[in-house]
Automatic annotation (TrEMBL):
A Pfam short name: Amidohydro_2
Protein name: 2-amino-3-carboxymuconate-6-semialdehyde decarboxylase
PANTHER family: 2-AMINO-3-CARBOXYLMUCONATE-6-SEMIALDEHYDE DECARBOXYLASE, 2-AMINO-3-CARBOXYMUCONATE-6-SEMIALDEHYDE DECARBOXYLASE
Transmembrane segments: none
Residues annotated as signal peptide: none
Boundaries of every Amidohydrolase-related domain copy: 3-329
UniProt keyword terms in alphabetical order: Decarboxylase, Hydrolase, Lyase, Metal-binding, Zinc
Length: 343
């Protein structure tokens, strides 16, 4: 059983948001041919993509090629609309959540979906999660911050508590990366700032004492191996022990809380994966590929499936059973997908 919990999609098309709302720089799709397109932000190129983003048959070909039984899809963060009025972000959430469920419906049981919500307005976001869960989503993907508001913001904690009450898995993805003026070249925003953003989010929840206030039933996962968290956990623990301003709101050192969240396996290196499992424990790492983008795994699950640094028990947990626990589903729910894949 192999489950990929981190992949993205774009619909083949969606309404003209700039025309609907009368404001510029909304994302839209510029198709080149049947297999290639460019996501635009107003008149600027955002990202080239392929039909794997919107064609479930192409996606399933790749799942079959690499032996993946089930893949969880979520929108690409550029579609969040967090910088727009909340009612406009809700309109976008409804469009892209419906598009995700359409892909799921056409996937012969091979895909499941996480929703997006207008995170800037807590009541709307909570209602959107509840509606998404009723409609068949397994949970929600959120960005890791809103401007200067980190995940320990009281409004976000209310939202996370609501997700726990609804049984919704929460996948945290970095976006709107810090210091873009310092990292304009070589995709350094993705290579450096994404990792820093993710560590910032995890430590914000830990050092603020937020995990002490959130229910243990909350299932939350951080993308890209938790960013730089695992590598720098020793530094954070050392600071907690020796500086009162670090530990003033957290009754325990950061390492105490590694059993409160998951990280995906998208680290692309054997030694990094071994460190991640050693830090988080074998029950807290789930397979994530970041498919179908160039910075994702080009052969889905290859690192976890082939590395010599994992035991068979660790490999099985990361490939499948941990994902079942994070997503809140039973293995029986994907037996149809496995049967279809075998055909």
């Amino acid at each position: 059983m192999i489950i990929d919990i981190h992949s993205h999609f774009f619909p083949k098309q969606w309404p003209d948001l700039a025309e609907k709302f009368g404001t510029p720089n909304w994302p839209w799709m510029k198709h080149i041919d049947g297999e290639r397109a460019t996501v635009m932000l107003g008149d600027k190129v955002f990202r080239p993509i392929t039909s794997a983003c919107w064609d479930p048959d192409k996606r399933i070909e790749d799942l079959d090629r690499d032996g993946v039984d089930l893949q969880v899809i979520c929108a690409t963060p550029v579609l969040f609309g967090y910088d727009r009025p909340a009612d406009q972000a809700l309109y976008c959430a409804d469009i892209f959540n419906d598009a995700a469920l359409d892909l799921v419906a056409r996937s012969h049981g091979r895909l499941k979906a996480l929703a997006q919500v207008p995170l800037q307005e807590t009541d709307l976001a909570c209602a959107a999660v509840s509606r998404a869960m009723r409609n068949g989503h397994l949970g929600v993907q959120i960005g890791n911050h809103l401007g200067e508001r980190e995940l320990d913001d009281p409004a976000f904690l209310t939202f996370l508590h609501h997700c726990a009450d609804e049984g919704a898995a929460v996948f945290v993805h970095p976006w709107d990366m810090m210091a873009p003026e310092r990292m304009p070249r070589y995709m350094l925003g993705w290579l450096v700032a994404m990792a820093a953003e993710t560590q910032l989010s995890i430590l914000s929840l830990i050092l603020s004492g937020a995990f002490e206030r959130l229910p243990k039933s909350l299932r939350i996962c951080f993308a890209h191996g938790g960013g730089s968290f695992a590598y720098l956990l020793g530094r954070a623990d050392n600071a907690w022990h020796h500086r009162d301003i670090v530990r003033k709101d957290s009754p325990h050192p950061p390492s105490h809380y590694v059993d409160r969240f998951y990280c995906d396996s998208a680290v692309f290196d054997d030694k990094a994966l071994r460190l991640l499992v050693d830090v988080m424990g074998k029950e807290r790492v789930v397979l994530g590929t970041d498919y179908p983008f160039p910075l994702g795994e080009q052969r889905l699950g290859h690192l976890v499936g082939t590395t010599s640094v994992l035991s068979d028990e660790e490999r099985a947990a990361i490939q499948g059973s941990n994902a079942l626990a994070f997503l809140g589903i039973e293995e029986a729910e994907i037996t149809g997908a496995r049967a279809y894949a075998a055909e």
